[in-house]
Amino acid sequence: DAMVIQNPRYQVTQFGKPVTLSCSQTLNHNVMYWYQQKSSQAPKLLFHYYDKDFNNEADTPDNFQSRRPNTSFCFLDIRSPGLGDAAMYLCATTSGSSYNEQFFGPGTRLTVL
Amino acid sequence: AQSVTQLGSHVSVSEGALVLLRCNYSSSVPPYLFWYVQYPNQGLQLLLKYTSAATLVKGINGFEAEFKKSETSFHLTKPSAHMSDAAEYFCAVSDSGGSYIPTFGRGTSLIVHP
After folding, report:
1. Cα separation, B20 vs B78, whole angstroms
2. Closest by alpha carbon to A91, among A45, A26, A28, A60?
3. Taking CA atoms, what residue in A is nearest to B34?
């Protein structure tokens, strides 16, 4: 089945230790998004790609970076995780038309010790 | 500019009772509207969407929603709640002007009592 895959599902890191989360998709969608979701809150958009064009949200901390080496893969790098970065990180894709829904991966739950 | 308001952060119903989750939107152009469901420790899954065809939209798991332009609403309903419907529900709006960045509501947690 076509889908959005996120690895790992659970990630534990130490305060200040860099971490990379990965996302892959078999839908061949143009657009990939990274969201941060904290408990009982809506997903918060960090950034998105339209093909290789990178778009950063204005309030995304510099501590968060992203790479999209090809259509299928996208990575979220957290350079120096703080306690406040503990959250669920969701990857999503869409075909780039506003009437099309987003397809979400299962998420990576990040714990910072 | 677009925005979404979900009234009620928590809705509690008994099993078998009607489910009604409210969503009001604001959009400067005709909107596209979506309802997503999120189960614990999972990503969001599309329940249904409105894209300017029929105003009454049927989705998965017995849910439906009606687009009412005059009320700027897109409320989600289900005639009879099941225990398995307990989850977080998010309403989202995209505008027909071409933006593919949807705006999400804050979410409503549906609690189903036996």
Report:
1. 7
2. A45
3. A101
A99 CB within 8 Å of a chain B CB = yes
Which residues of chain B have a CB within 8 Å of the CB of A103?
46
Nearest CA in chain B to A107: B43
Is A99 close to B41, i.e. CB distance below 8 A? no
Q: CA–CA separation, B1 vs B29, rounded Å?
A: 9
- Per-residue model confidence as pLDDT tens digits over B60-98: 999 999 999 999 999 999 999 999 999 999 999 987 766
Please compute the mean of the pLDDT values over residues B46-62 and round it to a whole number: 92
What is B58-78 written as a DSSP string?
Answer: E-GGG-EEEEETTTTEEEEEE
Integer Cα distance of A66 and A76 in angstroms: 5
Whether the predicted pLDDT of A2 surpasses 70: no
